Q: What sequence folds into this?
């Protein structure tokens, strides 16, 4: 600053009074207030939709359970290329908390690299309720033929709502 020393304090005070509130508004409060307004608008829209559906809230569409019922396995067999085989399938419930269950399937596939990649792409695109969490690529030796084969182990999860059975 080239302001004379006597006006330095007044200049800094003016910058503090003008620039600090502007910076706080621009970089912190503006986006927060815009999100708060949008949230309020969406809440009012949901309240307007509730009487039309006859309930407290619009009905949520829950996807069908795929892991424990074997639907995931059937889907993978349906859209996997011809050279890809399912060699293992282990479905488990990994978490039960607050009315939600997370179900995990360990799926082992063998085949060519291109076929396995096509299968992974199909799983990601065609099964929106399931999420692939881990993929492990290995080469293993087939026990009978002693030939090496490529094995892909996938861990796929699906959150589902708990159903109370009485």
A:
């Amino acid at each position: 600053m080239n302001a004379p020393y006597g006006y330095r304090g007044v200049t800094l005070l003016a910058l503090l009074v003008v620039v600090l509130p502007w910076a706080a508004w621009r970089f912190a409060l503006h986006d927060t207030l815009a999100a708060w307004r949008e949230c309020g608008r969406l809440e009012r829209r949901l309240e307007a939709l509730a009487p039309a559906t006859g309930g407290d809230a619009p009905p949520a569409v829950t996807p069908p359970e795929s892991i424990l019922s074997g639907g995931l396995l059937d889907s993978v067999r349906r859209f996997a290329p011809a050279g890809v085989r399912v060699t293992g399938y282990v479905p488990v419930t990994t978490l039960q908390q607050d009315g939600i269950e997370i179900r995990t399937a360990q799926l082992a596939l063998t085949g060519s690299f291109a076929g396995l990649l096509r299968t992974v792409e199909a799983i990601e695109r065609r099964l929106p309720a399931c999420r692939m969490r881990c993929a492990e690529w290995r080469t293993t030796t087939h026990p009978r033929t002693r030939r090496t084969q490529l094995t892909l182990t996938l861990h796929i999860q699906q959150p589902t709502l708990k159903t109370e059975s009485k």
Remarks:
- The helical segments are 8-53, 71-79, 113-126.
